[in-house]
Amino acid sequence: MTTQETQTSAGPAILDFPTGFVWGAATSAYQIEGAVSADGRGRSIWDTFVSRPGRVLNGEHADLAVDHYHRYRDDVKLMAELGLKAYRFSVSWPRIQPDGKGRINQSGLDFYRRLTDELLDHGVDPWLTLYHWDLPQTLEDAGGWPSRDTALRFADYAATMHDALGDRVRHWSTVNEPWCAAFLGYASGEHAPGRREPAQAVRAAHHLNLAHGLAVRAMRAQGKDTQIGGCVNLYAITPETGSPADLDAARRIDGLQNRFFLDALLKGRYPQDVLEDLRAVGELDFIRDGDMETISAPLDLLLVNYYSRFTVSGTPGGAASAAAAPTDSGSPWVGSEHVSFVNAGRPVTSMGWEIDDSGLLEILTWVAREYPAIPMVISENGAAFDDELTAEDAVHDGDRLAYFDAHLGACHAAIMAGVPLRGYFAWSLMDNFEWAWGYGKRFGLVYVDRETLRRIPKDSALWYAETIKAGGLRVPAE
Fold this sequence. Notes:
The chain is of the alpha/beta class. The chain contains 15 helices and 16 strands. The chain has helices at residues 29-32, 45-50, 68-81, 93-96, 106-121, 137-141, 148-165, 178-186, 198-220, 244-267, 272-278, 291-295, 357-370, 398-416, 459-470, and strands at residues 5-7, 13-16, 22-26, 86-90, 125-131, 171-175, 227-233, 236-239, 301-305, 309-313, 340-341, 376-380, 421-427, 446-448, 455-457, 472-474. A hairpin with a 5-residue loop joins strand 1 (5-7) and strand 2 (13-16). The longest helix is centred in the middle third of the chain and has 24 residues, at 244-267. The chain is globular. Keywords: Carbohydrate metabolism, Cellulose degradation, Glycosidase, Hydrolase, Polysaccharide degradation. The active site is at residues 177, 380.
């Protein structure tokens, strides 16, 4: 695969991406589907979480979300009109198994069959994620991710989905961002299930990794011609200064955010320094013989979600997640609660996340250099801004357009540096339920009117469509 700069007959030069590069957009089930009680769907931990006062900004919930469950045909048509080559979506586990185990809800399974067929009929390749944080509530009641049994149940669910759709869906990923599910869900409490139990969060992190490995094994056993990947959210980490305290802070956050998951998936071990940090909250006797071999089952792809860079300090002051909810919460940084996160002065999104495309290039080249060779895909990358719909039914989101342009530029630079990057999925296809922030944070390429749920492509969507059509980025005129 090679890239080059070409001059088009229309005028501007294009930074070409490789032939076969995957151009897509991503969503997750709970954030867009709605229909939380339709057709036999069970209750998820997020249904419970949003029902608790003070957990979600303005008391908002996802009972309707953007009603993708009923509007999926129009949404797929819109994807095709924008020229998307692939669509990354997640499956609602409680829609398939209302109790998280046992009986299969055929109505739920049929929805994803219809969605898959609709995508294929429109020339959009389906990329399926098995878990994007909506654990069946019955499994949480039985212990949730801190319980080893949840990982076993996940493998059964993965096998069910893969058996049903593996003939039509070629690309699969297991657990989306296990760091968030473990540490925002069980340590800081800012995500469902809202627990603040640091020792249990560490157990959850391991069992999420184990669930991944068990699922890979279960799907491989079916012998289907599919590609399977693991999905991690990675951050470039910078110490505020060169002081020993700040260098140690960077080591700690890089360890828990990045290396704890990457080392497990790709090297079959946890970093020793991270294990020592985590022993501050208890022994790690839940890691059993054979677990790491299971977790590091060979993968076809590594899916990388990237949004920002962390600048950290070891000066005590209390850590706050970069995705901190608008409610009082504990620290997700188990064993490193003293680390502070510093605003380094870069422009920020409406989430308060600093914009740094150089961090994406840094992360991609680091993974390619430090880990066994594996094809990579950017499975999420995007930004929330305060979008406004004009009287002419347009959304002029220049900041988001610039964000995508810069980060795709970093992707191109990574490819030119030899990184085996195979695709890019913008987050998100459309505005949706942004977890504890409700509907106030808009990440979409497509604007969703909250009153009518009408979909309006933003300027960034039209730009992305032209980028896909051109097969690369326009080079600014000098």
